[in-house]
Amino acid sequence: MMPDIDREGRRKKRAPVIASILLVTAVMAALLQSFQPDWAWVSLAIGIVAITAVGVSIDPPRSHKRGSRRRGSDLTGHGRAEDDGPAGLAAHRWRTLARVSRLMPGPAGRRWLAEADSLLSDIEPARRTAAIRSYLLSAPRLAVMMWAHQLHRRARLGPRRPG
Amino acid sequence: MALRLTVQVQLVLQALLRDPAGEMYGLELSEETGLQPGTAYPILLRLEHEGWVASRWEDIDPRAEKRPARRYYHLTAGGAVQASAALSGARRPKGAALRRLAEGGGTA
Asked: What is the pTM of this model?
């Protein structure tokens, strides 16, 4: 697992940016204090907003529910601890699967994702990355197939009547 | 839409025909055929659209079992007959083609 290393790296990257913003804010506040004393608070407000924006963009707050819209396991659940390769990579691929499933017609996409979830929680960790890759590779063609099937079905059933 | 009997489709049908009354879930099928799960899924879906295969979600409590439910696939009565007929009429996949599939994990 690599999150601690990542966090440390992000902290190191963030420190000089925040220091620069603080320096610029202090200089601006001092200048405004000399020439426009009533407007000194503006530089402080801008500085606070800038520091918050930099902090959030470099180290976004974590959201456990992000992208998940179903029960069961994903790679943040079952099998996550013994996942092969860097944890971040597997989680990233999982999020990509979730995004790709939205290209498919609603129920079909949800079923595809649920089946992938079920299979990936059963599969040996060493084979999981290849399995995710195969899902991703087949997804575009599958999405086209699903939409074609959906359109074919709709055409066969005819237009829906209100009521 | 006519079903194209590719080597991968034949492998899936052969696996399902080994026990026509039984059910298989995605990982079992993938291991049985040597195909990657991402390759097997579109085939199963196509077979399902054609009415050869039917599927159902496993009836379990995922929290109690500590794993998500599996989707089980089985041949329909008509599907088993059609699959047998199609396979007997199809050109048998050559050994080399099967070996290539097994080595490459069946990614189409």
From this structure: 0.63
